[in-house]
Amino acid sequence: MKHMRYFYIDSMVGSLAGLSTALFAGLMLLNSCGYHLVGHGSEVGAIAADIKTISVVGNAERSLLGRFRQHLHSDAYAIVTDGDVADPEHHAMVHVNVPTPSFTPSAFSSAGVATQYRMVLTGSVDVTRQGKTIWQSGNMQRRGDVFVTGGPTSIEASRERLLKDLSKQWLNDAVSRIRSGF
Fold it and tell me: How far is it, in rounded angstroms, from Cα 141 to Cα 114?
């Protein structure tokens, strides 16, 4: 019985080693053809080391773009307005695409009155350099619910708090993806 147990453990270790080798080879094969799990980045992140200035533009709310600039701040590059680009070869543009969030009823009472609303904030970020897209985040989505427990003023206040929270979460996710390159 003792020898059977060792044989079983030996075969499991051999199977795990074979599985990990196959997985590694598969990932290397996918990576060699340009496939990446999220976006397509590099070891230094989405903003290359030779970039000296960046501009942050997009259709997001002005306050979100301002917070985005603050979170993206780095000693490696300066954040400038699009018109202040002195050296286009060492400049990148960060495009923040965040359409208006959806706010739809998601639960109803037996009388058909909405008792819960779902807010979904979806957006994406891409980095361009000399007119060519060099990195894309893919869709990033944050969602949350507002429960109807008061009048319109209470619902609107809850909606504003939720939008603020979802915007913070989305912003952190977007900046993290840019910094990691994935």
Answer: 23
